[in-house]
Amino acid sequence: MKVAARALAGFAQGFAAGLGSVLAAVLLLGPGLAIIIGLLGISSLRLAVFGAQWLRFDRRAGDGFTVEFSGHGLLLLALGIALATGIRGALRAARNEPGPPPQEFRLTLALAVPFTAGSTLLLVGALSAMGAAYEFLHGGPPPPLDIGSWPRLLVIVAGMAALVALHEFVHYAAYRYYGVRARFGFLWKPFPVAFVAAPGQPLPRQAMLVVALAPAVVITMAGGLLLAVPGLGWGATWAVAWNLAGSVGDLMMAAWMWRLPRDAWIEDVATGMRVVPAPTPGQEAGET
User: What sign does the CA torsion over 277, 204, 98, 38 have?
Assistant: First the structure.
């Protein structure tokens, strides 16, 4: 039974990673090139997704590379690749005996592909769910994200920057709720990411789970309420989707913390999190 459960979890993880990689590659490289790379090998597809973050691929007329697929054909190929990664994940999970969870979670370059795949799945899923709710409330789909001019692009970039700031502020507010004085920062390596951390101020596992998941929960709930407000539903739809896409790191850390013992204490060290000894009786939470 335990082997079957591990295999099922491995299949789900592999299927999600494969499908997310395909979607990310389609969005970043175009459907034709994405599927061709995908057929060459699953690992090649994942490397291509990461490389596409740094590559501006021009798909305009005259580019010299044009491949078209029907919507049904593209979907079948994407599902085929996702199924292959799912089966591989199930086989690996069934073979490997689960050991104790690692004592730390670090942001490394190896996470770039899971981050991209997870972000894409969350973005597409959130847009679909919020779009359906918007259509139910307003009688039509939300307007598309139109980048038709430089001023519009600047407005969108400014809006995304404000969303990142709000996301990190919610982390900060959650830390303050537990009496921790966190600090803001930005990492360039292994990949650019904003953060709020509290080195030297550990919290119990349950409190750190709240800190990690607070932005995803709070902003999603706020966006859901704003969805019904005329004129704000469009912005709320995209804000919730982009915030959830940017919460993939928080969700990964929460999944890691969930496997830890309930009495574990965790320290946020900016580049990740780690398990630390519980404070002594004379020590307060948030201090080491």
Answer: negative
